[in-house]
Each structure stands twice: as C-alpha cells, then as structure tokens.
Specification:
163 residues; alpha+beta; two-stranded antiparallel sheet; elongated; 4 strands; single chain
C-alpha cells in the first residue's frame, strides 16, 4: 500500500492499458499494424502526467496522435485527480456485467460516450493484469491480528458506565 505498493502498480498498469486501448479505438488500428501506414493519423509519442488519488500520486504516460484529435475519456485532458470510472468498469466487468451494459452505465452515470468495443479492449487488457496478479508468488507467512472487545454496562455508585 505504500509509495511503490501493489495497488499503485496495478492502477498504473491498468491506466496504461486503458489509454492505449482508447488510442487504438480512436485510430481504428492496433499498434504496429500496417493498416495505419499512410492513414493520415498515427501514434505520436507520449506525454507524462501525474494523477492524484487516495493511494497518492501516480505518474502515467498519455499517448498522443499526430493530428492532435485524440481526446481522452478515462483521464480528461486537464484532470489531475483520478476518478472512480475505471474502478467501476473493472468492478462491473468482474461481476459479469456485459460490455454493452457497462457502456450504458458509464453513459448514464458519467455522461461519457464510450463504445462497447473500447470497454471490451479495456477489459481485455485488464484481464492480463488480473491473471498476473492471481498467479503471483505468495509470502510464506502473513501476520494477522484480531481485535475483539466486549463492552458491559455497569452500575457503580449510582452511575451507569461502560466497561
């Protein structure tokens, strides 16, 4: 959970996958695909951006297109805080919600127009991260500490007190 904790790494990798999927959706072809050659618009490097969320600051790279017509959906252009949308997409997908229903929910709650194919690409990239997370090596020992308390009401010297 700390500065270089697993949660921050997962969020960063998920965002990278989502942003790459958004650009692929915008351009209409996969990275390194020959279809994109002489198409009039192509990938044009990345810019760095720092987002803040409840896990601290996360440095990400945002892909660009040559024409400058690519507008981000998951992370808005001047946004510096990370909203709950990607968590919601992941949560809905993990609960078995279809990509079409996720598309409708995102439209209804956030007012964002995202295609079902974009959601499918986002979840496809996240599935790889989830498989990697599930197959990671575990520690030999995980310390667990249980706290338990019973509170009694006791009358002492005519006063009711909690113990």
């Amino acid at each position: 959970m700390g500065e270089n904790g697993a949660i921050k790494k997962i969020i960063k990798a998920s965002l990278k996958g989502m942003l790459d999927a958004e650009l692929t959706e915008h351009l209409g072809y996969e990275k390194y695909s020959p279809i994109g050659k002489n198409s009039g618009n192509s990938r044009n490097g990345k810019t760095h951006k720092t987002l803040k969320n409840d896990n601290g600051e996360i440095d990400i790279t945002v892909p660009r297109d040559r024409n400058g017509s690519f507008d981000l959906v998951v992370v808005k252009k001047y946004e510096r805080t990370l909203g709950p949308i990607e968590d919601k997409i992941i949560s809905m997908y993990s609960k078995g919600t279809t990509t079409r229903n996720i598309q409708l929910h995102v439209q209804e709650f956030y007012g964002l127009d995202v295609s079902a194919s974009l959601i499918s690409q986002i979840t496809d990239k996240i599935i790889d991260l989830a498989k990697e997370w599930h197959n990671r090596s575990l520690e030999n020992i995980y310390p667990i500490l249980f706290f338990d308390a019973i509170h009694y009401k006791v009358t002492s010297e005519g006063k009711l007190t909690n113990y």
